[in-house]
Design brief:
With 114 residues, the protein is an alpha+beta fold. The strands form 3 sheets. It has a 3-stranded antiparallel beta sheet. A two-stranded antiparallel ribbon has the order 1-7. A two-stranded antiparallel ribbon has the order 2-3. It has one domain: Bacillus phage protein (2-Layer Sandwich). The radius of gyration is 14 Å and the shape is globular.
């Protein structure tokens, strides 16, 4: 399903951030990223970089995303690219990250948007 990056929210935004990082979904456990440790244990946790600073913050820092207040919303930009707005700093930053990696429209499998 084609979605405008500037409008992404919730599970669709989370999936887009994961896809922008090169991650692939594993066994249909959407909303969770499954990891396998070196000793073959499988770990999973809820991936919510749009609401969890411990997940979104490192992306902002690594990608050098600039955040700034803009009227009643937040703006974010990366490398002086046109800024993207969002209702919170994390949503604006994650939309900016996705736009910088995947463009202004993203194709996300419908099952990842639920």
């Amino acid at each position: 399903m084609k979605l405008k990056t500037a409008d992404l929210t919730g599970p669709a935004l989370r999936a887009a951030v994961a896809l922008a990082q090169g991650w692939t979904p594993d066994d249909g456990s959407y909303g969770y990223i499954r990891w396998t440790t070196p000793d073959h244990n499988t770990l999973s946790y809820c991936y919510c970089p749009d609401i969890d600073w411990s997940q979104g913050g490192p992306i902002i820092e690594r990608e050098r995303i600039e955040l700034f207040p803009h009227l009643e919303v937040w703006g974010a930009r990366r490398f002086s690219r046109d800024y993207i707005k969002g209702p919170t700093p994390l949503i604006a930053a994650m939309r900016c990250f996705v736009a910088s990696k995947l463009g202004d429209e993203v194709d996300i499998p419908e099952e990842l948007c639920l």
